[in-house]
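for the recovery benchmark. tokens below, seq after
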């Protein structure tokens, strides 16, 4: 999986789209759903992101590990 090569997202929408893009590159058939307070536009500044990632089948451990790393980078960019 390629390294994260985009600018730091500055909004919730940009961050959510970056997450969907990263997951889609790793697992094209995956669906990413944002739910909870951020999806309802009721989040506080310290609210977390509630994400549901639906997969059509199990993924290889190396794909899961690579995706974890990219999502972690995105998480750090949101701080």
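predicted aa per position
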């Amino acid at each position: 999986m390629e390294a994260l090569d985009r600018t730091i997202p500055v909004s919730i929408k940009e961050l959510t789209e970056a997450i969907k893009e990263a997951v889609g590159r790793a697992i094209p058939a995956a669906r990413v759903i944002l739910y909870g307070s951020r999806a309802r536009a009721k989040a506080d500044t310290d609210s977390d992101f509630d994400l549901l990632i639906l997969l059509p089948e199990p993924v290889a451990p190396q794909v899961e590990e690579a995706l974890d790393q990219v999502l972690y980078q995105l998480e750090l960019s949101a701080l």
